[in-house]
Amino acid sequence: MNDRFAPIPPRGTASGHAPRWTAILAAAALLATLITPLVARADDQDTIDYREHIMSTMGDQMVLIGQILQKKAPAEDLAVYAQILAMTATTAKSAFMPNVAGGKAKPNVWTAWPDFSKRLDELVVSTADLAKAAKTGDTAAVASKATSLGCKGCHDTYRQPM
């Protein structure tokens, strides 16, 4: 017999592979438990970023409309900015539906959801009305509708101070 040249398996195994695979699986399980909270946090941050971009887009459109109404910018694109505002307002409510606190939103967005939701529904109607008035080119009508949007009241109640 030539057993003296046969490889000797590591202690505790017949093949020598079990400890290595056990260590790899244990390391993978540990890594998964460490990464899972980070992935959830990234998803939450993505949700916050998304809704903040929506709200920022609406704010940008209001600034542009305001500049036109103050005759600081050409009025030819008033209807475009008003339409963008109205379209973006239709997406705002769904951006807040995931119950993810953080960002500029106060926690009472979710604890007072019926009121907050109603305000967003009213915003959709108001911005659609503003966009319709902007198509006519009647800047006086647009100015009246823009001041009645109620953005400040909602921000005072549901947005962190800046």
Provide tags for this entry:
162 residues; mainly alpha
Describe the structure.
- There is one protein chain.
- The chain has 162 residues and is mostly helical.
- The protein has six helices and no strands.
- It has helices at 18-69, 78-96, 108-111, 113-136, 139-147, 151-158.
- Helix 2 (78-96) packs antiparallel against helix 4 (113-136).
- The chain starts with 17 loop residues before the first helix and ends with a helix.
- 16% of the residues are buried.
- The mean pLDDT is 85.
Q: Structural class, from secondary structure content? A: mainly alpha
> Radius of gyration, Cα only, in angstroms?
29 Å
Strands, total number: 0
Contiguous helical run count? 6
Instruction: Give the termini distance in whole angstroms.
Output: 85 Å
Q: Beta-sheet strand percentage?
A: under 5%
Which overall shape is indicated by the principal axes computed on the Cα atoms?
Answer: elongated
Main beta-sheet annotation: none
What is the averaged pLDDT score? 85
Order of helices and strands: HHHHHH
State the low-pLDDT regions, or none.
Answer: none
Secondary-structure map:
Blueprint: H1 18-69, H2 78-96, H3 108-111, H4 113-136, H5 139-147, H6 151-158
Helix pairs in contact: 1-2, 1-5, 2-4, 4-5
Summarize the structure.
The chain has helices spanning 18-69, 78-96, 108-111, 113-136, 139-147, 151-158.
